[in-house]
């Protein structure tokens, strides 16, 4: 049985529609936009017909940058960088996966995530090896890692009315229109549909 880390953003929504895993896992780890991400992911899971699991683990004490609501650390490659974020999320999902009987946890990472060390192929290969040797033998995959977001959306065939639920803002539950997540959302929407909505 497969699960997807469904953040409620464009990438994970497109992967959900394309791959159709049985379970969606959304994690509230203390990020500022958690409420909106959970609402978006819940609606998408309902629309697609996936079981939706929500995990809440407060990691604000180790957060950094836009997502945490404080200054990014000096080593941050971009303003929204949160230390070891993908490693945390994959680990939490895999831990829940033991209870759920999962064989695989997928993420919605795309090629542009390569600006983060934990968004690169070598990271996902390493995480796959780490979880595979542990009890349960859960595998980790990132099926869209070689695609841009626009390529993923087109390839997935996700309808506009489902993608419209996406919440991409890094700074809060209402889109700020200025963070890197909002800008990406507008740019991808314009590239695919000719207009930003």
Explain what the structure shows.
The protein has a single domain, classed as HUPs (Rossmann fold, 3-Layer(aba) Sandwich). The chain is built from 7 helices and 5 strands, in the order E-H-E-H-E-H-E-H-E-H-H-H. The chain has helices spanning 10-19, 34-48, 85-100, 121-132, 149-156, 160-163, 180-193, and strands at 2-5, 23-28, 51-56, 104-106, 139-141. A 5-stranded parallel sheet has the order 3-2-1-4-5, with helices on both faces. It is globular. 42% of the residues are buried.
Salient structural properties:
alpha/beta; 197 residues; 40% helix; single chain; Rossmann fold; 11% strand; 7 helices
Give a quick summary of the entry.
Helices cover 40% and strands 11% of the residues.
The CATH homologous superfamily is termed HUPs
Structural class: alpha/beta
Q: Distance N terminus to C terminus?
A: 35 Å
Strand order of the largest sheet: 3-2-1-4-5
Specify the CATH class: Alpha Beta
DSSP helical segment count:
7
What does the radius of gyration come to? 16 Å
The best one-word shape is globular
Task: Please tally the β strands and state the result.
Answer: 5
CATH architecture: 3-Layer(aba) Sandwich
Query: Tell me about the biggest sheet?
Result: 5 strands, parallel
Low-confidence stretches: none
Helix-strand topology string: EHEHEHEHEHHH
Mean pLDDT: 94
Percentage of β-strand residues: 5-15%
Helix content: 40-55%
CATH topology: Rossmann fold
Catalytic activity: 7-carboxy-7-carbaguanine + NH4(+) + 2 ATP = 7-cyano-7-carbaguanine + 2 AMP + 2 diphosphate + 2 H(+)
Keywords: ATP-binding, Ligase, Metal-binding, Nucleotide-binding, Queuosine biosynthesis, Zinc
Family: Belongs to the QueC family.
Protein name: 7-cyano-7-deazaguanine synthase
